[in-house]
Write a structure and sequence with these properties.
181 residues, 3-stranded mixed sheet, 17% strand
């Protein structure tokens, strides 16, 4: 189990030393030291490993989510994300009806517990290259799934007036490039 208290001060100090214009405000308003449960995450959509990839894609579309958590005996055993679809399935001429998600999911995914501070979770996602991280109980039962979208929305909510009052084009033309999504 990760001791989040050891890491939070170092991460906050590193973030604040980076020269951000939001140094003081980010600590006071966003409360980066508060647990991720303050984001009001929705319950995860969980499935069994023998679910067809076609059904998984349908569920992801219906629920408007980017990942599903795979469980066995109510414990997390894997995660199936949009990235798994692109990297492991697309272009292989497979029938989505005939393949099980257990063959294409990411097994034993990295997780966080509900008491992880927001700063730690954000740093964890950036360093790991994760867009989704399952939040689990001490017994490895899925409680939620944190997405980078949740974090961005949370930050955007706190800086709403600053964001909507930005000029329509960046001051530095080097920022506006054709690369990216």
């Amino acid at each position: 189990m990760i001791d989040y208290d050891e890491h939070i001060d170092d991460e906050l100090n590193q973030m604040n030393e980076s020269g951000s214009a939001f140094k003081k405000k980010s600590r006071e308003v966003i409360h980066l030291d508060r647990p991720i449960t303050t984001l009001n995450l929705r319950k995860p959509v969980t499935i069994k490993g023998n679910t067809s990839v076609a059904r998984c894609l349908e569920l992801m579309r219906e629920e408007r989510i980017g990942c599903l958590l795979i469980i066995k005996d109510e414990k997390l055993v894997g995660i199936f994300t949009e990235r798994d679809v692109i990297r492991r399935i697309v272009g292989k001429n497979l029938s989505h009806e005939d393949i099980d998600v257990s063959d294409y999911m990411t097994t034993d995914p990295d997780t966080l517990t509900h008491d992880a501070p927001l700063a730690f979770a954000l740093n964890y996602m950036v360093l790991g290259g994760y867009r989704h991280v399952p939040i689990v109980s001490e017994t490895n039962q899925p409680m939620a799934c944190l997405s980078i979208k949740n974090v961005i929305k949370h930050i955007g909510d706190h800086y709403f007036s600053e964001i909507v009052n930005l000029p329509p084009t960046p001051k530095n033309p080097g920022w506006a490039t054709v690369d990216g999504g």
